[in-house]
């Protein structure tokens, strides 16, 4: 990572109240190198420029720490982690969290596993599969303290996919761009249908870059009915209380 990239990373994290130490900065630099190397071989991420990766993957991932929703030694599922976001940046700055980056695409999860190993991150436990199927499995359903998710689906779809994984009192922390009132309203109704209640909707801007973001927090308030999640592909094709995009 160039000195400019390091400065952006440190400044961006600092705006979030995180003072990165030299070892953590080195970890992000290695992750940048691994991402670029792997992106040359496979379609892993749309961002290639150092500034974009630092701000829009690394710092953006860390914004889910805003609001203190992830405090404590929690078991956290990253639903639809892709190339490891937000799971890998979280694992680098929060060794107390046990992170399970999950994605339907095996090659992406394999990259996340290789990266975690190369970075010496023992708190990362990658998982391949679709949320609709894993969310019904013993050992997965109603076992997580938190689900984080970034850039995966509209809120009503996320509610159906994520809430089954949460134990009672657990939280879904969804990283979104600007969210329309209609999506939020459908999300509230979908959450209620699958055993949740929206607890927080926090608009903010991405450090340094200034892009609009929203953190939506949903609490698991009652067990998810057995009929959810519906079978693979249905939550996205026929979202609860929402039009498909
Ligand atoms: C746009 S990417 C975002 C990746 C990452 N969270 C990020 O912010 O860079 C969405 C990812 O979600 C995964 N995904 C979508 N629906 C899924 C599902 N039902 N179960 C598991 N993974 C899913 C896709 O395979 C894809 O890798």
TrEMBL record:
EC assignment: 2.1.1.-
Annotated TM spans: none
Highest taxon in the source lineage: Bacteria
Subcellular localization: Cytoplasm
Keyword S-adenosyl-L-methionine attached: yes
UniProt entry keywords in alphabetical sequence: Cytoplasm, Methyltransferase, rRNA processing, S-adenosyl-L-methionine, Transferase
InterPro entries linked to this entry: rRNA_ssu_MeTfrase_G, SAM-dependent_MTases_sf
Residues reported in the UniProt entry to bind S-adenosyl-L-methionine: 80, 85, 103-105, 131-132, 150
One Pfam assignment: GidB
Gene Ontology molecular-function annotations: rRNA (guanine-N7-)-methyltransferase activity
Residue ranges, annotated region (Disordered): 223-245
Gene3D superfamilies in alphabetical order: Vaccinia Virus protein VP39 (3.40.50.150)
GO cellular component, one term: cytosol
Described purpose of this protein according to its UniProt entry: Specifically methylates the N7 position of a guanine in 16S rRNA.
NCBIfam families recorded: rsmG_gidB (TIGR00138)
Family: Belongs to the methyltransferase superfamily. RNA methyltransferase RsmG family.
HAMAP family: 16SrRNA_methyltr_G
Protein's name according to its UniProt entry: Ribosomal RNA small subunit methyltransferase G
Gene: rsmG
């Amino acid at each position: 990572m160039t000195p400019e990239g390091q400065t952006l990373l440190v400044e961006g994290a600092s705006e979030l109240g995180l003072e990165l130490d030299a070892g953590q900065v080195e970890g992000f630099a290695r992750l940048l190198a691994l991402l670029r190397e792997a992106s040359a071989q496979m379609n892993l991420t749309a961002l290639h420029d150092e500034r974009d990766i630092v701000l829009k993957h690394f710092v953006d991932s860390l914004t889910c720490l805003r609001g203190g929703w992830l405090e404590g030694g929690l078991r956290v599922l990253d639903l639809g982690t892709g190339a490891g976001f937000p799971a890998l940046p979280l694992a680098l700055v929060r060794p107390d969290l046990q992170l399970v980056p999950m994605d339907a695409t095996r090659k992406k999860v394999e990259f996340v596993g290789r990266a975690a190993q190369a970075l010496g991150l023992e708190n990362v436990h990658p998982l391949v599969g679709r949320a609709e199927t894993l969310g019904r499995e013993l050992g997965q359903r109603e076992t997580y303290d938190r689900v984080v998710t970034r850039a995966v689906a509209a809120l009503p779809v996320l509610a159906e996919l994520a809430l089954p994984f949460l134990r009672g009192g657990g939280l879904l922390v969804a990283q979104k761009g600007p969210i329309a009132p209609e999506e939020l309203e459908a999300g509230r109704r979908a959450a209620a249908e699958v055993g949740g209640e929206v607890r927080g909707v926090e608009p903010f801007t991405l450090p340094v870059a200034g892009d609009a973001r929203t953190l939506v927090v949903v609490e698991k308030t009652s067990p998810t009915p057995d009929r959810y999640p519906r079978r693979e592909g249905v939550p996205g094709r026929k979202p609860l209380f929402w039009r498909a995009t």
